[in-house]
Amino acid sequence: MDSEPPSFAERLRLLRARLGLSQEQLARRLSVSFATVNRWEAGRSRPSARTAAAIAELEASASRGQRPAQGPEPAEEQEPAEERTARLPIAQSSFVGRERELAELAGLLTRSRLTSLIGPGGAGKTRLAVETVRRLAAAGSGAGSDVVFVPLERAVQPPRSAASRLAARLGVRDRRDVPQQQAMLAALKGRPGLLLLLDGAEHHREELAGLVGELLAAAPGLRIVVTSRVILGVPGEVCWAVPPLDCPPVAAAAPEVASSDAVRLFIARATERLPGFSAADVPPHAVGELCRRLGGLPLAIELIAGWVGTLSVREIVQQRVALLEYDPPGAQGSRKLADVLRASYDLLEPGQQRTLRLLSVFAAPFSLTDAQAVIGVGEPAAAAALRGLVDASWLAVIRGVEQNRFSMVEIIRTFAGARLQDADETAQVRRRHARYFSDLAARAASSFGGPDVRGATARLEAAVDDLRTTLEWAA
User: Fold this and answer.
1) pLDDT one-digit tens code per residue, 308-346
2) Fold exhibited by the domain 348-474
C-alpha cells in the first residue's frame, strides 16, 4: 500500500533541514514573521498561494543542489549562478502603517549612500527596510531599481564569511586566479545604481565595517542599506533608529485608537489568526492599552495577537508577560520573545549590560541625574552609558526644553529586571533607588513653603511612579 504524501508542515521541516536553515532564517527568506513559520510547521495555518509558490521554488532548488541535511555550506552556494542574484523577500502578510517612517526613509535612501536601520530584535527593521526599497522600486526611483538582498544570519560563520555570502548573492563564482573581493568589486562596477540591503549586520559588525567602506569607495554609484542591532561605526553612516509603532494615548477617542499603527497591526494579525475576526469584536481601548504595554514593539504585538480566539483581550492584557514566554508544543526552536531580546542583549558590552540591568528599577521616565544616582557613577560616565543604550535602541529619548528624559518599554524593562535578578544585584540597586527617591521627596517637601513650590511639585509629579515603587519595596 502506497504511503501518504508528506503534509505541508512535514515538507517545510524537511526543506529547512536540507537547506540548513532555522525558522528565523526561513522567515527572513520569505519576509514573514517567526510566528508565521511556527504556525505553518505546527499545522495551524498555511501560506498564501504566492508564498507557497516561493516555497516550492526553494524545494526545487534544494533538489537540484542535492545538498545533504547536515552539509556545511549555505544554500546559496548550491544554487545555479542565475538564482544567486538576490531579490527582495516575498511579503506573505500585509504591511501595516509606518507611512511617516516610510517617507522619511525613502528620502534618506535617495540622499545617503550608507543608511543603517538600528533597533533591538523584534523592532521590525527588516520589514521596514524591505518595504521602503520595494516602494522605491515600484515608483521607478533609481534608488530601488536594482536591489540585492543579503541575509546575514548567525549561521554565517568562518570560513564562510559575510563577504562570501555577499559574493554568492551577487552571483560571483569562486575563482582561484581572482581574489573574491576583487571579483565582487568588478561585479559592482558593472551595476551602476545598485542598492545592497544587508540584513542582520550585527553578527558581522567588524568584518562589514571594513568591507562596506571599501565597496562604497570603489563603486561610486553604490548605495547600501543596513539593518542591525548595533551601528557599524563607518564614516558617512547615517544611523536611523527604528521607532516603535504609534500607540494611541490613554485618553484617545475610539476612532483615534483604531487608526493607530500598533492597534491596526494587532487587528490585522488577529484576523489572520482567526478568520472572521474584526475590530468590532474587541474593546478598542483594551487593545490600545495592550499595545502601549507592549511598547509598540511589532514582534510582541504579532506574537500576542496569536492568542486571539483563545483568550479575551482583557485576559491577554492581564497575562501578557506569561503569554510572550509561551513556546508552542512541537515547535522547532524557541519562540519566546525573551530569546529575541537576549540576542540583542548579548551584543552589548558587559558594562552596557550592567547599566541596562540597573536602569530597569525605574518605573517611569528618568533624567540623567536620576540615572547617575542609580548607576553610581559621575555625570560624564552616566551620559556615555545612556548614549550607548540609546544608540542600540534599548532606551527611548523624551526630548525637553531644559532636560531630556529616558524611558524603557515595559517588556524590555521586564527582561532587564530578570537579568538583574540573575546577577543577584536586585537588593543593592533597589536600596540605592529607594534612598535616592526618599531624599528627593524630602527635599521637595521642604520646598513647599518657599519660592520653588512649583518646581518641587513638578519633581514629585514626575517621580510619583518611582515613589510608589519605593514604598512597595520598602514594605
Assistant:
1) 878 887 888 887 777 777 666 554 444 567 777 887 888
2) Arc Repressor Mutant, subunit A (1.10.10)
**Four-way CATH pick for 84-241: 3.40.50.300, 3.40.30.10, 3.30.70.140, 3.30.160.40:** 3.40.50.300
Give 333's Cβ-side CA count (13 Å radius): 20
Supply 358's cell numbers.
Answer: 540597573
> Where exactly are the structural domains of the chain?
1-71, 84-241, 254-337, 348-474
92, amino acid identity: Q
Distance of CA 170 to the CA centre of its chain: 26
How crowded is the C-beta side of 314, counted as CA atoms within 13 Å?
2
Residue 77 has pLDDT above 60, yes or no: no
Q: Tell me which of 109 and 451 has the higher pLDDT.
A: 109
The three grid cell numbers given for residue 285, joined into one nine-digit string = 481601548
Q: Confirm whether pTM is higher than 0.85.
A: no
Task: Please check the confidence at residue 158 and state whether its pLDDT lies above 80.
Answer: no
Query: What is the DSSP code string of 21-89?
Result: --HHHHHHHHT--HHHHHHHHHTS----HHHHHHHHHHHHHHHHHT--TT-SS-GGGGS-HHHHS--PP
SS3 62: helix
Fold of 1-71: 434 Repressor (Amino-terminal Domain) (1.10.260)
